[in-house]
Amino acid sequence: MASKKDASVPHSYVTAVVGLSGTEAVKGTMGVGKGCLCNRFVRPAEDDFYTDHSSLLSAADFNGQVVNNDHWLYWGPTTRMADDGTEQTFHVVEQTEFLDDTTFTPLRGGKTESYLKRCSQIRIQSADKLMYICRDQLGLEDQFERVKFPTGKVTVQGFICVVDVSRSQTRSLEAQLDFVNKVLSTLMKTKKPIVVAASKMDEGSEAVILEVQKLLGKREYKSSIPLVETSAMSNVNCELPFLLLASLIDKTRARPKISSFAESDRVRQERLDVARQAYGNLLSSNVTDYRAAWPKWKGELSKYDDFNHFVELLGLRRARDVFVNRVAQLRHEYITRRKAEYLRRIPGLLEEFFPTLSSAAGRSWKSCVRSVVQRPDFNQRFVNSPGQSWSDDDDFLESSDQRLPLRLFASQEVEAIFSQHVKALQAEVKRQEFKKQFADLVSINKNILPGAELAEMEVFFLGRDCYDRLSHSDRSEVYRKVQMELRDRAKREFLELLYERMDLFSKYEDPDTPITQEDVEVLMGLLRSEPKCRALSRCEEDRKVIMLNHLGFLQYPIKEQCPYRPNCMELSLQKALSAKQKRSQGNAAVLDWSPNPEEKMINLAIVGAQGLAGHLINEIRDHYSDDEYHFDNKVYSLDYRVVEGNVSLPQNSLKTPGFVPQGVLCVFSSFDTLAFIIDSVNKTFLAANDDRLQYEGLPVVLIKAYDRNLPEKEHLILRENGFELARSLRCEFLDVPEPSEHEHLLIDGYFYETQVPLAMRDIAIQMASNDCVDSPYKSPFGDMRLLMCHMCADPFSVDTVLQPFLQMQSCTVVTNDRYHVIQFDTYISDVKRKVEVILTSYHEATLLRDEYCHGYILCYSVKRKASCSILQSFMSKMPPVPCLVVAVNDSIHNDVSISLTNKGRLIAEGNHSLFITTNDFHNQSPYSRLLKEVWDYHERYLTKHSDSFNSMAMDSSINSATSAASPDMVSQYSSTVSGSRKHWADSRGALYLGGTWADNNDIYYKDRIHAPIAERIELLDYADPPDALSDTSEEYALVQDALPAGKIQRVQSTFKRDFQYKPAFPQTDSESDMSSLERSAAMRSPVSRRRVLNVRNGPRVTSPQMGRRALSPMYTRSEASSTPERKSNSLPRIVLNRVNADLENGTGSATSIMRSETPSEGSESAGDEGKRLNADVKRNRSLRALRRKKGEDEEQSLLERFKNSVTTNDPDKQRRKSMKRKQKEETKVLREKQKSVQRKVKSRLKRQSYLSNRGSGKTLQDYVQNEGQLIPMFVELCVKYLESEALSVEGIYRVPGNSTQVELLKEMFLHDKEIEIANIEVNVNAVATALKGFFSDLSEPLVPIHLNQELVVADSIPEKSSRLLALRGVVKKLPPANHEVLRYLVTHLYRISKNSETNCMDSKNLAICWWPTIIRPTISNVDDMRTMGKAMQDISITLIEQHGFFFYNEHEV
Question: What pTM was estimated for this model as a whole?
């Protein structure tokens, strides 16, 4: 090979590596390292480096193709990059001497020359010689890379002489240096470049190195031979001798710097450290499972340069070792973590297994372990791996078993924890003993008053062991708890004092009475001398708060603000009666005529003679094809049974084995058919014996058919007799209009078109009422109503006084969170009566004190002075009706109970009331005397007032066709109706519509109503204008009295209507524009409770046998039917029946038809409406005069209007008219609805106060629309409107809106959830106030109370970023709905604040307005108000200003 080549062709150099060689006697047991140096240079990778290059060979290996009978080896070519960027190829030849492995003598090759002569040869040749890799290659050449030595003679261009500088025990330094000297001398003769490589520098000796340097410094070498310090084992400077030799061969190349071994070794160690670190990081980030395997991961790691670099420097074996160490470390860490987790569970297990000192003290740990093993749940808590440690059990480690290894539990580590547990139990026992002793010490010390600080009272405890041995925190905790008990007890006693001294507060019970600070001071001065008041001398603020709350509660007694909650009597009654209600429902016998819900069948028994039953069936089938009746979204099949004979006979019985009726329709048209009906009902429903019980509750409807052959007078008599029979049966009576001139209104000549639908609807409603006690159609009538009152927190069970009622078989209990009623049947004066008992507390009873009630049962406890005091206060304001005072006591008697019992008896006697104690309950029926006295009182009242009403009824009956009631009579009646409460028969008795008292919950939920909202005054006859319509009538001048035809007249009460609760049930006064009396007359009479279809009312024939009658405030049923008011019922009765018929067919609107257009007195539109109505009066009078001239009376025009509004021969025309009317009425309905709501709102707002925050009782979750839309609809509606209309309105949220408009918005939203606020006459401030009110009415604040303290702590962090992060962490704890609504609201407030230049509402002002609404912290005193208020205001400001950071993951601002 040439020494120089073209620059574009890689340079190639043939180098010969020589050194001490020969037998063991010459070179010793170890060679000088020529083979290792060649190996490192030719194959630098760590995995390609072999240390065994022995010269002992077998003859076969020597003759093999690798050695090829030569005493030199060809290490192959290798390429290096020069500094100038060119490649340099080195062909390395090692000159050695091979020895026979048996004789240890040199093997004979082709030439037998000495080593000194052979090593200096510059031209070498060997045909087919292969590259040497390692000793394993010999004899297995085909399994290794086959690279042949270049053909022909190859010229050696330079020599590297290897000198071993390590200390050798088998070779002398002098012999090696002498041999090297001879070699160098021979090589110098070749005139080729020579480099000396000092090998094994990692074990080298300084003395040997100095000798080598001295040798090279001889004169004959002319200092031309450079020395390079190398170490093949450490791979240091192994390339440098070859690169240096190449620079000596090629003079044009720059000579590389000859670095010392120490410097080169340092550089290499740095490279190795970097490679190790990079590889370690690679394993740490990728290998995280202690179960990782090397074969799998080797391929994965080979994709990373850090792994390949490490393998190149340190080898794959070292890489595997590091990987194995990493996996072992992971396993150790995993075991350590599991062990730590197990040890963390140990204290809890020890507390569970050995909770007390007696269960752990004095026991050895082994016995404790044995007791644990014997536990029945041992296998569920522990795992036992016999034979090996749990940490060596791979199956256990790899499983998800969370059980504790028994070996670990029995270890010494756990034993040490057990010892600490025992010591902690001992210390805790001592600590609890000291705490109890200290608590007792504080409690018995009379010098410690509620509110006293520990620092002030510390002098009483110093030197006591129980005080000194406790820590400061324990002392403070015990003292705080005792102080809380003392304070709570003192507050309860002070509250009891306030109720004991109710005589001081009587003048403040009126909500219109203002309470000033001077009044509070006066009351406090009167009570300050009382011990119960002095006990709170250090808690003056608490004392004032209790006093103010008491005064507020007296004026606005809301059960949600009862000071005795959760012992409020309303809650106690609900809890006590709820189980009774379920029991009464569960024990109620299912009536055998009750429909089977699964069968959907209605069996009708049709009772009628002379073929009327068959005509009625045909009429029913004409209305309901396929015998299917639709009611309440259900379809019922109809089946019929005709009864035309004696019902006493089996073949004519109402009920047969195969037919059980669910309703009975009795039809008559003449005296004969009526006699048949009377005979039938007398043998069934009105039977004298117990036979009638089997028909009790069976729905019955009485229908009068038309007989053309009867004269008009007989029709009137039949009608009156039908009324009387209906009263006896207490059923519905469906009459027909006078058909003599309007026969076309009849169908088939017998029945009016709405009679059948009304009859079927009434049967269906009664069926529904039989199915369930709480059915919405349930309407049992009560003959007597009593009010039973209890004091909250009285020390007795309400079952004591309720048991006599609950034991009655007919007792029915109805209770929920708003009312509690007991109904039962009992005999009074040998007549069965239905009695209702309303159960309530005294504070709720004040809302009912002015209402219609027949008697009172007032209970009090003889163990409690406050109970007796509230009794006395209540009775002083009670109307003069029969009353029973019940003193609740027990078998234990003391001076207090005896004194209070006597006091209660004196109070009862002073109020002319009955008195009884619960000790007397077992001797008699405790309430029978009261029931008897109530009924007798009613009879006496009727006797006293019957003459005036009977005369009024008679006059009205005689003059009904020609004249109207005189103004004096109307005035007398009106004054009687709205008279003083001194008359027990208050006109509000007419508010009772026939359902349970609770059904008329508008009575219960009015605070104080001094008069009915509107009394009904109707015209006696529409033929002539009554005198009552004259402009000079003072009574009628109070209202807008000129009404269009067909409108119901109202008289607005002169008393102001107070605030009332929102009703819980439909069809109450608060939901209807009609008053209670109007609805009573229009829907159901007070006695019969049935609708009566009646167009024309002639003279009534009264019967002395009226059947049972209910307690009525002024007149009986027969009297009521003959009064002018009763006579004028025809128009609203017809309108209502038309509404029912339309509703049943799916058409018509009860709301629009029942609504009156007349504004009440004092309403906003009363003035304008009055002008219009006055014009209507004049027009109506002209029309009446014209009609009289034409011979038409008012009744005929009324029938014509009714015919046109109800019937038509063209259904399409009727539908078109109905649609036009509906469209026309929609606008009017909305306008009237707004006016009606405004009137109700105005009267309601008069009772509102900051002390009467009733709230909605609902949580935010109740208003969530759905899972995808968490924002309540009302909130979304208000926010969208405000952001479109109010962003620039000055003082938005700060300026309150008109309360009437606020309530109007709420009411309108309740009627129509999709209402447009822009269409309502409300301003933006009212909408803003309504939005705030929505959140104020929630039973729980938007930000839950339990997060308040966390908010305060987070807000106290000084550093801004940390504070914001902490606050955001608390906000994220909100429930999903609360978080979403808060985000929506705060974003809205932020938009408001962005316009602060125009609306003057920056974030601070908005926070001041909103934080009490959305956060509501618990504030018990003024200091809390200051601190909490400032903190919550700052938090609200932060939420608004940083809304993007809190809710939208934006950066803080």
Answer: 0.42
